[in-house]
Amino acid sequence: MRRRALGLLAALLVLLPAPAAAQERLALAGGRVVTNTGAPVEGGTVLLSGGRVEAVLPAGAAAPTGYRVIDAAGKWVTPGIIAGISQLGAVEVHAVDEANETVARTAPVSAALALEAGLDPEETAIAITRIEGVTAAVTAPFPGRTIFAGQGAIISLGDGRPIRPRAFQHVAYGELGSRIAGGSRPAAWAEILNALDEAQRLRNGLVSPMRDQHRDLRVTRDDAEALVPVLTGAQPLLVRVNRASDIRQVLTLRNRYPGVRLVLVEAAEGWMVADELARARVPVITLGMDNLPGRFETIGATMSNVGRMVVAGVTVALGTPDLDASFQPRLLPQYAGNLVAQGRLPGGVGLSWDQAFAAISRAPAEIFGLADMGRLAPGARADVVIWSGDPLELSSAPEAVFIAGVAQPMESRQTKLARRYRPGQPETGLPKAWMR
Fold first, then answer.
1. Are residues 244 and 257 in the same domain?
2. Given CA atoms 419, 423, 426, 430 in this order, what sign does their dihedral have?
3. Are the CB atoms for 384 and 373 separated by under 8 Å?
4. Do 36 and 170 share a domain, yes or no?
């Protein structure tokens, strides 16, 4: 009876109308439209309806009747930026454990952790990032007690909620993984194999459902069960790794577990094994701006890393994988622009404009199988940004942001503070500001 009632409730919810704002028909007219599916459409018009892109019209085509026209003449119209990896929605203050949901240092489980349970749609950084043109983010946990960090989510910056919960599993190898696992790469590798082998046993029914754990199990049963989707390819396995030899080692996982969908995170020396990554069709998510050998595993770091991997045929998306708060997803257009500039330096290998913009929009969507995101085409999710100019130039800024076809408030905590404490503001009723 209860199941029947729940089914009836679900059916009624499907029949309910979508929010009125999402149903508004909009025509973003006259801008330089970057579709990510071909050449830009100069003076084009993007039609949005029901939270989706309905069409991209050529220059001179009039918007159909019933659409509210928004003048984008002289502006750039693009898909929204997708942060390839971030901590958005999971960290308010990095240095305060109570405000950081990405790391579970003493939890009895690891791979079974699902980050969406700790997401905060009201986190300050969401609005700050959204008004800079970022409309979605891959939010990742960070390894704590074990090398397995848990399951991350892909969130919409419109409401801060998951578009896809439990979207991937995250594990650390290299220096970080070896340190957590006991002090060496062999120790970290043994942990990876043990966990995946236990998941394989569960998948094949070799472990009795009445038993809490296998006799040599070093991961909990919950963790092993959480890794079964990794073996089937239902969840990508994001592996944090940098050194070229470590990358080669990670690629051998496919020999033992053919169904695993590998995605590398950071990969500072990826350029040294770019041909191997391309042949294996393993994509990379990285910041792309690391050229300092700050650790032994990044001695080969170079600003041409991303360019060389892309030339070899590797799919590369930009994100902010470091927990350092200075790596902010709102700066991704700047980082992409720097990769364009890298190609203009003597001896440098960078990206074309189209490649750089794809790295912060279409590429992350493709890596995670989000076929309706990262592009402006009929049926695509209506995450759209109107920019004052070229989005990869520092002089440009978003003038309007639409997420699922809904216009977003162009305000954040920072803009409110700037307005409140601007010079000449009456002090009556306001707290004292710092005096200069």
1. yes
2. positive
3. no
4. no
Classify residue 326 by burial, with Cβ atoms within 10 Å: 0-12, 13-18, 19+.
exposed
- Helix, strand, coil percentages in the chain from 3-state DSSP, rounded to 5: 30, 20, 45
CA dist., res. 102 & res. 123, Å (int):
14
Q: How far apart, in whole angstroms, are the C-alpha atoms of residue 354 and residue 197?
A: 42
What whole-number distance in Å separates Cα of residue 208 and Cα of residue 218? 17
Instruction: Write out the DSSP string of 68-119.
Output: EEEE-TTSEEEEPEEEEEE-TTTBS-TT-GGGB-S--SS-S-STT-BGGGG-
Give Cβ neighbours of residue 68 (< 8 Å, ≥ 6 apart).
24, 25, 26, 27
CATH code assigned at 46: 2.30.40.10
Could you report the per-residue pLDDT of 193-249, keeping only the tens digit for each?
999 999 999 888 876 654 555 444 578 889 999 999 999 999 999 999 999 999 999
Query: What does the block give as tokens for 87?
Result: 């901590």
Rounded to an integer, what distance in angstroms lies between the CA atom of residue 345 and that of residue 131? 31
Render pLDDT for 382-406 as a digit per residue (tens, 0 to 9): 999 999 999 999 999 999 999 999 9
The reply to whether 386 falls in a domain is yes
Taking the whole predicted model, whether its pTM rises above 0.70 is answered as yes
